[in-house]
Amino acid sequence: MSKGRGDKAAEIRRLMATEGPAIEENTKGFNRKRQEAVADLENYEELRDRAREIKEDAIDRLPELIDRLREAVEDNGGHLYVADDAADANRYIRDVAAENDAERMVKSKSMTTEELEVNDALAEDGVDVVETDLGEWVVQLADETPSHLIAPAIHRSQESIAELFETVFDPADPPQTANELTSFAREKLGERIRDADIGMTGANFVTADSGTMAIVTSEGNARKCAVTPDTHIAVTGVEKVVPSTDELSPFLELLARSGTGQALTAYVSLLTPPVDSPTVDFDDDETPLSERDSDRDFHLVLIDNGRMAMREDDQLRETLYCIRCGQCSNSCANFQHVGGHAFGGETYSGGIGTGWEAGIEGLDTAAEFNDFCTGCSRCVNGCPTKIDIPWINTVVRDRVNRGKEPEGYDFLVEGLTPDEEPGGLDLDKRLFGNFETLAKLGSATAPVSNWLADTGAARWALERVAGVDARRDLPEFQRETLVEWFGNRVSTVSDPTREVVLYPDVYTNHVQVERGKAAVRVLEALGVSVRVPAVRSSGRAPLSQGMIATAEDHAHDVYGSLAEYIDAGRDVVVIEPSDLAMFDGEYERFLPEASAERLGEHSYEIMEYVYGLLENGADADALRAGDGDEVAYHAHCQQRTLGLEAHTVAVLEDLGYDVLTSDVECCGMAGSFGYKDTYYELSMDVGDDLAEQFSTPETRDRTVVASGTSCLEQLDALLSRPSTHPVELIAP
Amino acid sequence: MATTTTNPTLSTFEAALDDLGVESTRTTVEDFATTLDGIVRDPAVGVSLPFDVEYPDSVTVDPTPADLERAATGVTPASYGVANYGSVLLPSTDDGAELVSLYPKLHVPVLRASDVLPDLPEALDRFGDAARAEDLSAIVATGPSATADMGKLVLGAHGPEAVHVVMLDE
Predict the structure, then answer these.
(1) Residues of B (3-32) whose Cβ lies below 8 Å from A
(2) Sheet holding A79-83, edge to edge
(3) Which end of chain B has fewer CB atoms < 10 Å from its terminal CB, N or C?
C-alpha cells in the first residue's frame, strides 16, 4: 500500500516540476479571461439554466432523438452509425477507410476519438493519421496524450515545442517564435491536408431536426478537414445530440466563454453534410470551382461506449450534460499544478474526468485520479450546465471504496468503521472519515493524546499505516470542548434581540475552541441569546472520503438535533464554512426536501450573521474595533462558492480594519487532502501562491485572517506568523 | 433600403468588428467595385454574389482550384452579420464559397448592411430554417483564425489571418 502511495507522490513531484509551470500559467490565464467574459454577459445565469434544461431534456429523450437524427442524416444522403463501443466504432471507421483505399486521414481535435484510440486502429491498416489541430499535432509528434480537454498541449512551453520540431524535422532554419512555429506547422499540415483521402472531425453538438453538426474551432482546421478531402467521417458521443438548431445558441454562447474566456471561437461550423462545397484538387488549373463536382461521402459515427448505461445511472447521468469546455480543469487549484497527466484517466481529465472515466472505462481508471478532487467546489459556479462535479466525484469515491476488498490493519481501527461503510475502505480514508470519533477520544485524553500523537514512533506509524504525512502538524485536541465550556457558564444576555444555536462543528468543539468562544462573545455582545448544544458532526469528513452512507447518517442526526431549535425560532449559526456548505448543498441529497430547505434557510455563516445583525441596528461599538489595523484575509473555497466572502470583508471594514483579500484559487490544504503523504507536496505547492501573496512588502506585516479550519492550518504551515479566524479578531 | 449610420445594430456590429481587429467598410452598389478594388490583395478570387453588384477586374470570379491556391484574397457573400459578436454567417455553396473564404490569407465577406442581426439566436433561427429545408451548411465566422497552442496568440492558423467586412447599402 505505502509503495503505491510513494510512487504516486513521486509522479506528482515530477509533473509539478516539468509540466506544472506551463499548466499553471495557461489555466490561470483562461480562468481570468473567463471571469471577465462571463461578467460581460448580461443573461449568463439564464443561459446556464437554459443549457441545463436542454441537456436534461435531450438526455431524457435520447433514443427518440437518435431516431430523428438518423432520418435527417439519411435524407441528406449521409450515413449514421451508432457504435456500441470503441472496437465497434473502430471497425466501422476502418471499413470506410478500406473502401476508400485511404492512405492518409487528416483529423481535427476530438476527445471522443482519443477515447476510441482510432489513430492506433487505423495505423494497423497502414493509414497515416495526422492530427491538424496545432496543439494536438504537438502531442502526436511527441507521442504523448492530451493534458487538457480543450488545450491538449497546455503542458508544453513554446521552447519545448521549438525543440520538438527541431528534433522531429531537423529543419534548416528551425522555427523559434510563436509566429514561426505556427507558420511551420501550417505549412507542414497544409501539405498533408491537401493529400488526404479522408477528413475526420468530432462534433460538439448534433441537431436531430436537420442533421446539422456544430464544430467549434479557432484554427480553421476542422473546416479544412471536413471539406478538403471528399470523404468526411464525424465521430462523437451519443450525448451530443440536441433536439434542434434552435437549441444551439446557449451552448455556443457558453462554450468558449467557459473554457478559454473568448466570447465565441473564430469558427463555428454548422455542417449539414454531405456539404455542397465542390471537391478540390489543387493542381487543377482548368475547371472553375462551380463546375467541379461535389460528390461527397459522409459518415456520422455516434458512440455509446457506456453512455447509455450512464443515462440509466441516477448519479452519473449528469456527466452526460458536460459540453467539454474544460472550465472545471482551469478553475481547479490541483489541476493548475499537475495538469491532466496526473489529474486524468485514459482519456478525460479534470473535475468532470472522474465521471467520464467511471462511465466509460470503469471505476479502476477513475480511482487513479479521483482523490485529486478535494470537493472545494470552486468549479461549481463556472460549469455552463450546472453539473455538481464534486458530488459526482464523491459518488465515484464511494463506489471505489465499496468495490475494495478489506485490507490489513483492521485491528488498528476497530470501532472506527460505522456499519454503513464497507470493510475494504482505505485506512487513511477511514481515519479521516471518522475524525469525529478521533476528536472525542483526543479531547477526552488530552493532553496525553497530543503528546502521544506527536512522538516520533506514533508519527512514523501514522505515516506508514494511514498515510498521514509526518511533516504535517497534527491538530491539538483541547481537554475542555466548546460544548463543555459553554455548559459551565451563564449567559450574559437578558433581553435578547435574537436567539441562535451556535453549531459546534467538530473542529471548533475539540480543536479550535477559542474561535467558538469568540463567536459566543461576539453574538452575546450584539444582544443575541446563544446556545451550544452537543450536535453530531455535519458529515463533511466522511463525505470527503466518499463515505456517503455515513455522511447521510450524520445528516439525519444533525437535522434531528437542530430542527427543534429552528421550530422554536432560533437561527443556526455555523463557524466552519465547509459545514455550512453541507447544510446548504449536500443535505438536499440526504434529507426530505422540506427538511433540507428548512435547515438551509435558517443557517448562516458566523460573519454573515454578524453582518446581518449590524445592518439591522446592532451596536458595532460592542465589538473590538480595528482602528486602521491591517489584515490579510483569505476566504474559504466553499464560502466563496456560496458568495459569503463579501460579508466578512464588509464587517471588518465597517469596524475600521484595513482589509486586503487574497486572490488565489485555494490554500491547497482542502480538509484531509494536505495531510496525506501522497498529496502533501502538491498541497504545499498550491499553498505557495497564498504564502507568496501574504509575504510581499505590502502584506507581510498584516495580521493573517482566514475563515476555514483547513485554511488556518495551511496558513500556519506556510507562514511564520500565526493566523486567526475573523471572529476572534472582532470579539470583545 | 439604405440604412442610416445611427442604426444601433450596425454600430454595435462595427464596434464588435473593431474589437476583433477586423476592418469594415460600408459602400453602395455603385461604388462597390471601386471599394473592393481598394481592399483586396492580389491575386484575389471571389465567388458570385447574390447582390446587384459588379466585381472589379482585380478579382478572378469562379476560380479554378489552382487559382484558389495562389490567391491572397478570397471574396465571398455572407448571409447575416451578428452584431454583438461581430460574426458573419458564411453559407457553403456549390461554387466553393467555403473554400474561398478559408484558404486565402485575407477573407472579404460581403453582406447587406440590412442583414446585420442583433444576436446569435436570431441568426441561428434563420439558419435553422434553411438547414431543415435545404440542408444548408454555414460557418459562423468571428474574426480571423487564431491559435494559442504555440505559446502565444497568433492570428492566422489554418484559415485567414485577416478579415475585412464589406457592408453593402442597397
Answers:
(1) none
(2) A79-83, A297-303, A231-237, A198-201, A104-107, A128-131
(3) N
DSSP secondary structure, A232-251, as one string: EEEEEEGGGEES-GGGHHHH
Q: How confident is the model over A321-337, as a mean pLDDT?
A: 97
CB-neighbour burial class of residue A104 (10 A; exposed 0-12, middle 13-18, buried 19+): middle
Distances (CA, A) of A15 to A20, A22, A160, A447, A666: 6, 11, 15, 41, 19
Q: For chain B, say whether A69 makes contact (Cβ under 8 Å).
A: no
Averaged pLDDT score across all residues of chain A: 94
φ and ψ of A50, to 5 deg: -65, -45
Q: How far apart are CA A719 and CA A700, in angstroms?
A: 10
DSSP A120-144: HHHHHTT-EEEE-SHHHHHHHHTT-
Q: Using an 8 Å CB-CB cutoff, list chain B residues near A254.
A: none
- H-assigned helices in A434-529: 435-445, 448-453, 456-466, 482-487, 506-510, 513-525
Residue from A182, A192, A268, A330 to probe the interface with B (highest B Cβ count within 10 Å):
A182
Q: What is the mean pLDDT of residues A561-569?
A: 97
The DSSP line for B84-149 is TTTEEEEE--TT-HHHHHHSSSEEEEEEEGGGEESSHHHHHHHHHHHHHHH---EEEEESS-EE-T
SS3 string, A690-726, reads HHHHCCCCCCCCCEEEECCHHHHHHHHHHCCCCEECH
Q: Is A145 exposed, middle or buried (0-12, 13-18, 19+ CB in 10 A)?
A: middle
Asked if the bond preceding A447 is cis, omega within 30° of 0, the reply is: yes
Q: Using the structure block, give the residue that is written with the C-alpha cell 442526526.
A: A557
How many angstroms away from the CA of A223 is the closest CA of chain B? 8
Cell reading at A13 = 513531484
User: Between chains, do B141 and A273 touch, taking CB under 8 Å as contact?
Assistant: no
B158 to A221: CB separation less than 8 angstroms, yes or no:
yes
Task: Kindly tell me if the per-residue pLDDT of A415 is higher than 60.
Answer: no
Q: Which residues, in sequence order, are CB contacts of B100 under 8 Å at separation 6+?
A: A289, B45, B46, B47, B63, B68, B71, B74, B75, B76
Other C-beta atoms lying within 10 Å of the C-beta of residue A378: 22
Which residues 610-669 of A are in CB contact (within 8 Å) with B?
A: none
A69 half-sphere exposure, CB direction, 13 A CA radius: 30
| Alpha-carbon gap, residue A524 to A146, rounded angstroms | 56
The packing angle between helices A248-259 and A44-60, to 10°, is 120
Residues of A in contact with B68 (CB under 8 A): 280, 282, 289
ipTM of the complex: 0.96
Closest CA relative to residue A274, chosen from A293, A297, A290: A297
- Let me know if B50 is exposed, middle or buried by CB neighbors in 10 A (0-12, 13-18, 19+): exposed
Whether residues A252 and B121 touch (CB distance < 8 A) is answered with: no
A269/B85 touch (CB, cutoff 8 Å), yes or no: no
Helix (H, G, I), strand (E, B) or coil at A538: coil
Q: Which pLDDT does position A658 carry in this prediction? A: 97
A248 interfacial to chain B (CB closer than 8 Å): yes
pLDDT, tens digit (0-9, with 9 covering 90-100), for B95-130: 999 999 999 999 999 999 999 999 999 999 999 999
* A452: pLDDT strictly greater than 80: no
What is this structure's pTM?
0.94
Q: Which amino acid is at A439?
A: A
CA B105 to chain centre: 13
| Residues contacting B41, CB < 8 A, separation 6+ | B72, B73, B105, B106
Give the cell for residue A575. 463557524
pLDDT, tens digit (0-9, with 9 covering 90-100), for A348-378: 999 999 999 999 999 999 999 999 999 999 9
Q: B63 touching A, CB under 8 A?
A: yes
Query: Are residues A182 and B156, on separate chains, in Cβ contact within 8 Å?
Result: yes
User: For chain A, first and last CA: distance in Å?
Assistant: 50
Residue whose C-alpha cell is 453582518: A611
